[in-house]
Amino acid sequence: MTQSNITRNGLKAWVLAARPKTLAGAAVPLMMALSLAWSDLYALTGEVFCLKVVPAVLCVLFAFVMQIDANFINDYFDFRRGTDNEERLGPERACAQGWVSPTAMLWAISATTLTAALIGMPLIFYGGTTMFWVGLACVVFCFLYTLVMSYVGLGDLLVLVFFGLVPVCATYYLQTLTLTKPVVLSSIACGMVIDTLLVVNNYRDRVGDRKVGKRTLVVLIGEKASELLYFGLGLAAFHMGLTFFFSGKWLTFFLPTFYLMLHARTYRKMKRIHEGRELNVVLGENARNMFIYGLLFSAGVIADRLLFS
Questions:
Q1: Which of 156, 76, 162 is nearest to 116 (CA)?
Q2: Could you tell me which of 129, 128, 187, 181 has the C-alpha nearest to residue 162?
Q3: What is the spatial distance between Cα 307 and Cα 292, in angstroms, rounded to a whole number?
Q4: pLDDT(298) > 60
């Protein structure tokens, strides 16, 4: 994609800057949390339509807007720091390519941050003041990820927390006003699955990141350990499902086996390609695998409740 066929600050430029493909990372925790909440509420009430619609919709909107906000923040500040340069191997970025002006991006960051806050504020009425602090942490660490933590090897920790523990547990809590061990374990598994995307991304960019002083976890531990980390995250996430196996929820455990097969195949491709722009193919496959995991897990939860209870 070249700048010549994109109008500066035009609609197409903003769509590219928002990175709609990354919304899968925001969707997976919500699918998992809402399926778990539905299963437990259905067991208690016997009603199929037992989910609270308003907090569910607000959680979806908040997650999607925050993901777009994170993308805008990453685009702007990586451009300012020179991380997004002509040697970039990943998809082109809006500010670096001149599709969106830095000033316009700053305004967009302000608008999306404010919009996310307005969407999230009503959740206080459903989950108490804890939701205020959860939302505030999401906003603060959305900035800290790009400004600090992704440069000191802590980006993966943030993914585990804010794409796993926080969205799954908070969304479930807003539906049930409680938390259970299976939900917490599922949230950790979710964070691990989504972190595989960051590992692939940083694995592809390891040479360039090292040059500009961006010390991602991949840079810190090296490529061989990163390959093992990538495979281990998917494997560990799958085995988190043992909590469902031992409680007799067979499909919730066994359906994600298909994800594990896809993950292993993508891992082998990642090792074979090893470096360069071709790893973008692996990134795309990983995003697909991640979404499939969410679908399979959620389908298993729902099927177990309908068929075996």
A1: 162
A2: 187
A3: 21
A4: yes
Nearest to 244 by CA among 178, 299, 181: 181
Exposure letters 1-35 (e unless 16+ CB within 10 A, then b): eeeeebeebeeebbebbbbeebbbbbbbbbbbbbb
> Is there a contact between 259 and 291 (Cβ–Cβ < 8 Å)?
no
pTM above 0.90, yes or no: yes
pLDDT tens-digit map of 86-137: 555 667 788 888 899 999 999 999 999 999 999 999 999 999 999 999 999 9
Task: Find, among 133, 194, 136, 131, the residue nearest to 160 by Cα.
Answer: 194
Model confidence band, residue 1 (pLDDT cutoffs 50, 70, 90): very low
pLDDT in tens, 57-90: 999 999 999 999 999 999 999 888 876 655 556 6
Neighbours of 105 (CB within 10 A): 23
Are residues 66 and 24 in contact, defined by beta-carbon separation less than 8 angstroms? no
Rounded to whole angstroms, what are the CA distances from 205 to 21, 57, 85, 214, 220?
19, 36, 12, 10, 13
Give the pLDDT of residue 84.
61
Query: What DSSP element (H or E) covers 22?
Result: none
Q: In whole angstroms, what is the distance from residue 230 CA to residue 278 CA?
A: 17
